[in-house]
Amino acid sequence: MRATARSRLAAELRRLRDLSGVSGRKLARLISISQSKVSRIEAGVVTPSLPEVTAWVRALGVSEETLQRLILLTKQAFTEVQPWRELLEDRPHVQDDVGEQEQRACRIRTFQSSVVPGLLQTADYARRVFATYQPPYEEEEISAAVAARLNRQQLVFTPGRQFDFLITEGALRWCPGPIRVLLAQWDRIASIVTLDNVSVGLIPFHQEAVTLLSHGFVVYDAGEDGRSRVTVEMVHATMTVSDASDVAVYDQRWSSLRRMAVYDQDARDYLAGLADDVRAGTP
């Protein structure tokens, strides 16, 4: 699998420090960051800012040409696009990677306009979602992916984590199987709404729009490096955005979408109304 821009940047910064003979402790003093942050940067856990990369390179006396190359790599690391074909090259699913991102965040905000978010899916719904993927999964791969997705859901019940969901009516009504699958999925959402650390907002078709219902996205707030990140799933790839100004654009979109949603008892009543319409055969 191709190395990411972040991992390439981490490896290059580590290589330059090793070549210079400067210890991690000394480099940390020279550029005014902690030694532990130097270690996390070199491990690819933390993406350094452009000023930190510039200070790192200049402290080691590296050429201006190398600095410009690393600046470009840093910018790429802040908007990382990874094709699905490469992510799935040597494994059946990426649920463990997603779970690691969730573990590092203190708050996760998910907007979905086309499908119920994975953290809220029932096993039957999840299985049918994976069955729609292209290229198609083998049966045993679907089972492994479903099991891993359900394992991720345990985090929702962990104290100290906040989960916020915004789901459009279109996503709620998308039906990957018999109506019973959808009804069970709505029951699941209605039960999750009652958790203290979970907020579920539902966006009805009839709600007056204040912004576009664009592609889904997930905001991971305040990771271990103190930065928020956004992931966007595209048809051919997944994109990770970590530049603060770009993340702010998603924050603004989230705020607008939130104004269109119904919550708490209104959300449960709305789900119950959808279920009544389905059972009555009303579109």
Helix % is 40-55%
Unreliably modeled segments: none
CATH architecture label of the largest domain: 2-Layer Sandwich
The total tally of domains equals 2
The largest sheet is: 7 strands, mixed
Order of helices and strands: HHHHHEHHEHHEHHEEEEHH
Rg, Å, rounded: 22 Å
| Average pLDDT level | 91
Q: Assign the CATH topology of the largest domain.
A: Endonuclease, Chain A
Task: Describe the overall structure.
The protein is an alpha/beta fold and 283 residues long. It has two domains: 5-77, Orthogonal Bundle (434 Repressor (Amino-terminal Domain)), CATH 1.10.260; 91-279, Endonuclease, Chain A. Helix content is 51%, strand content 14%. It is built from 13 helices and seven strands. The protein has helices at residues 5-20, 24-31, 35-42, 50-59, 64-78, 84-87, 95-104, 123-130, 139-152, 169-173, 179-192, 244-258, 264-279, and strands at residues 79-83, 107-112, 162-168, 198-203, 217-221, 229-233, 237-241. Strands 1-7-6-5-2-3-4 form a seven-stranded mixed β-sheet, with helices on both faces. Helix 1 (5-20) runs antiparallel to helix 5 and helix 8 (123-130) packs across helix 9. The radius of gyration is 22 Å and the shape is elongated. The model has no long low-confidence stretch (mean pLDDT 91).
